[in-house]
Structure formats: C-alpha cells, structure tokens
Design goal:
The chain is about 5% helix and about 30% strand. It is mainly beta and about 250 residues long.
C-alpha cells in the first residue's frame, strides 16, 4: 500500500481526477493503492482502516468503548501516533454480485466513548464519489477504481507494485478532522475478515513482514520504523485559465 503527501493533498501518482475537482474548499485528498490482490474480483469485504492524528489527545491504544473498539480494541499504534479520528471504507461485490461501496467515520476521544456514523454508500465504482443513505455532515467523498489487476503477488516478501495507479479515493474536508492549522499524521492498513490486520500498511512495514494477525494483539510500536506518515497542508498553486484552454479541456 502506498500513500503520498503533496501540499494539502494525500494522494498517489494516479491523481484524484474527478474526485478532486468536485471537492470544494480545503481538505485531505487521498488515493490509497492496496497491492495485496486483484481488486476486480469479488471478495469478502476487506476494509481499509484510516486513522488521523490531527488534534491533542486521542487514543494510542484503541479502547473497547470507542467507535473503533470492536473489533479493534487493544490495537496499539507507534508511540508518536495518537489518532483522534478514523474512517473505514469497504467495497463489496463484483462481477456477478451487486457492487456497493461503504464508508464510516468517527472520533476517538482520549477517555473513550466518542461518536461513529455511517456516511453512506454508492453503487458505482469511480466518479462521482458521493455517498447516500447515511449521515455525512462534512460531505466526505469516497469511491474506488477497482479495475486494477496489476497488484503484487501474495506473500511476505518485498514487491513494488509498480504501475498500479488506481485504488480507493477519498476527499475529507479539514473540518472533519478538527481544522488542523499545521501538519498532522495518518496511518492506514487493510483489515481482512475475521478482523486480521494484513501486511498492507502505511507507513510501510519492513520487507518479510507477514499478516500481523488479529487486531487486538497488534502493536505497531514493536515493528521497526514508523507505521504512519506526515501530511503538511500548503497552498495549491493555480494556473491562469484562458478560454482556449478551457475549451480544450472540456471538448
């Protein structure tokens, strides 16, 4: 899995395309490219778990009474990462199955508790990334381009996944993560039924790392390196548009 920060974006080389153009205002834009399997096949709803540390406080070890507490209670992050918010995304169905994409969002107060909401779902892959049928006060967008068939092979060895430019795309207004004024940190991993943390994580795990196992027993602090990355918001430059250039874009 690869996630890369760029200005006020968190994105991969494939860009955000229509998703990015439809997001108004300042926000966290992400393209997450899982490399563990062919995304075009029907699967048993592997979930992408994203945690964001953007405010004081939070939970370094997930508590049982927090929104992420089941089935993740006991999971411990690196000592320098104490998330305040989480998002979960999963897509179900492909081929001859009914496709859906689903997203959840919640907060992680220091003492436990917090809130969690179902943001909604969509029945289309790709754009538009809107979600319906849930509660989405910040207008978070989430979708997936599930055409990738070029991911890395299964196993524990190192692999680059070169050429993979598609995956899960999200647009998260900064208001949804407390309007951080400066840099913040993000951790993400794939959770596979029944609630096992895989070796697809960001920041990356050391080569040779296999599945980490049931979430409650996972301690990222015991693994070399940082399993989180830093994002620093910055102004995004804009070019002056001419009528000729606009006509060329939208022909």
């Amino acid at each position: 899995m690869r996630i890369r920060g760029r200005g006020d974006l968190l994105r991969g080389p494939g860009g955000t395309r229509d998703l990015g153009r439809r997001q108004a205002g300042r926000g966290l834009y992400a393209v997450v490219r899982p490399d563990d399997e062919d995304q075009s096949r029907a699967r048993q709803a592997d979930a992408l778990e994203i945690f964001i540390d953007s405010q004081p406080g939070g939970q370094n070890q997930l508590l049982g009474d927090s929104p992420a507490g089941f089935p993740l209670a006991g999971l411990t992050f690196d000592s320098g990462f104490v998330p305040d918010y989480f998002l979960e995304f999963f897509a179900a169905g492909a081929l001859d199955h009914a496709f859906t994409r689903n997203a959840y969002y919640g907060s992680l107060p220091t003492g436990g508790g917090g809130s969690a909401i179902y943001l909604g779902s969509g029945t289309n892959p790709g754009a538009p990334a809107t979600l319906s049928g849930g509660t989405n006060p910040f207008g978070i967008l989430a979708t997936i381009d599930n055409e990738n068939t070029a991911g890395v092979s299964a196993g524990c060895g190192p692999a680059s996944g070169a050429g993979v430019t598609t995956g899960v795309e999200l647009a998260i207004p900064l208001a949804a993560i407390g309007n951080p004024a400066g840099c913040f940190t993000v951790s993400a991993f794939i959770l596979e039924p029944p609630y096992a943390v895989t070796n697809q994580a960001a920041g990356p795990l050391p080569p040779g790392t296999c599945f980490l196992g049931p979430a409650p027993g996972v301690n990222f602090a015991s693994i070399p390196g940082d399993q989180f990355l830093t994002v620093c918001p910055a102004a995004t430059s804009a070019r002056r548009a001419t009528w000729g250039r606009l006509k060329a874009i939208y022909r």
